[in-house]
Amino acid sequence: MLTDGVGEAAALPGLRGLLRSVRTPEFAGTVFHEVEAKSALNRVPGSSPMPFGWTVNPYRGCSHACVYCFARNTHTYLDLDAGADFDSQIVVKVNVGRVLARELARPSWAREPVAMGTNTDPYQRAEGRYRLMPEIIRALTRSGTPFSILTKGTVLGRDLPDLAAAAREVPVGLGVSLALADRALQGRLEPGTPSPPARLDLVKRIADAGLDCGVMVAPVLPLLTDSAEALDALLERVRAAGASGVSVLALHLRPGTREWFMDWLAREYPALVPAYERLYRGGAYVDPEYRRALAERVRPLLRRHGLDRSAGVQRTGGDGFPHGAPPAERLAAPVVEQLTLL
Ligand code: SF4
Fold first, then answer.
1. CA 272 to each of CA 178, 246, 258, 327, 332: distance values in angstroms, whole numbers, following the listed order
2. Are the beta carbons of 104 and 137 closer than 8 angstroms?
3. CB 120 near ligand 1, within 6 Å
4. 291 C-alpha to ligand 1 centroid (Å)
5. Which pLDDT does position 309 carry in this prediction?
6. Cβ atoms 85, 75 nearer than 8 A
7. If you write DSSP's letter for every residue of 15-28 in order, what string do you get?
8. What is the pLDDT, as a whole number, of residue 327?
9. For residues 249 and 216, is the Cβ–Cβ distance under 8 A?
10. Ranges for the Radical SAM core domain (predicted)?
């Protein structure tokens, strides 16, 4: 292990509470910036349409390195860039569980739902090393706080006994994000993520543990992953894995993400650049006509796979999540099938 706390602290004035920066051979090319967080609970702005009031993010940056990740721009607040730095310079809040337990013990804490996985992935590879989530899960459970987790990380499987125990005490919503089944495209698009079969296996393990597991088919990439055939095959596998519900969301391209994604598209699929410029000419959200057509394509597929027992199409508005809309919306009725089309 190599550490260079002093040098990194001088180079990264945006990193408050930095204890040290760590590089290890198992995580080649990644730097972990270990910080002492002052707070763990983040208030979701009152104007947000999301169905939870609080989030906890043990990590900033994400080695899953999804090209389309919505959270990229948040790294610029740390004097790091929204591109390669977001993927490889990971801020680790090493004391997050302790700080969270303290915050949850306040008499004023109203036990509102807490969401994880809304900014960066709490079960990214770093969690295998730092093991921050078990303490977070215990703190939330002991305080009687409902919570949800959305992830692409198979490290979650390690904590299934804790999550099953938590679900006996408080409402727990679990979701796995899986945008596509094509291995070659997944490797280029989400190079740091577990493979689609590994994530489907995680869905199965969650279901086998007696817990509901929603799947976010998100983001759907226009002209790359949005054919009826591709979605049909993916939904068939999602259903077979035992998902309790599915949400389908089209790609959003917010500033910071847009530049990184469009550079990638120009390298990998240059012929698609004009089509994307047209589809996203209005800003971060795909052309409404495309969205309607996608909804029409998906609806019969959901019916065919028995995934359409939802209250209907739901819009959760626009400020977006890297993994799509969170499973927290299922906290009140964890067994209800839910379809979200954005
Ligand atoms: S989309 Fe999620 S898993 Fe992918 S890099 Fe962003 S936070 Fe990580």
1. 22, 28, 14, 32, 41
2. no
3. yes
4. 22
5. 62
6. yes
7. -TTEEEEEE-GGGT
8. 40
9. yes
10. 48-297
What's the pLDDT band for 52 if we cut at 50, 70, 90? confident
As a 3-state breakdown, the chain gives helix, strand, coil percent values, each rounded to 5, of 40, 15, 40
Helix (H, G, I), strand (E, B) or coil at 127: helix
| Cβ-contact 183, 117 below 8 angstroms | no
Strands 59-60 and 89-93: antiparallel
Helix or strand holding residue 250 (H, E)? strand 245-250
- pLDDT for 30 beyond 90: yes
* 42 sits in which H/E element: strand 41-43
CA atoms within 13 A on the CB side of 265: 19
> Domains along the chain?
1-147 (no CATH), 171-251+286-342 (3.80.30)
- Is-contact 41 103, C-beta < 8 A? yes
- By residue count, the chain amounts to 342
> Which ligand 1 atom is nearest residue 68's CA?
1
The C-alpha atoms of residue 301 and residue 293 are separated, in whole angstroms, by 13
DSSP state of 337: B
List the single range of 73-87, 231-245, 327-341 with lowest mean pLDDT.
327-341
pLDDT at 104: 98
Tally of CB atoms within 10 A around 169 = 14
- 0.70 exceeded by the pTM? yes
pLDDT digits (tens, 9 = 90+) for 188-240: 999 999 999 999 999 999 999 999 999 999 999 999 999 999 999 999 999 99
* SS3 label, residue 208: helix
Residue 217 near residue 240 (C-beta atoms within 8 A): no
CA 155, CA 125: separation in Å to the nearest integer?
A: 7
Taking the CA of residue 184 as centre, how many other CA atoms within 13 Å lie in the half-sphere pointing to its CB?
Answer: 2
Report the pLDDT value the prediction gives residue 313, as an integer from 0 to 100.
32
Nearest CA to ligand 1 atom 7: 120
* Ligand 1 atom closest to 71 (CA): 6
* Choice from 124, 151, 264 to test ligand 1 binding pocket (greatest atom count within 8 A of CB): 124
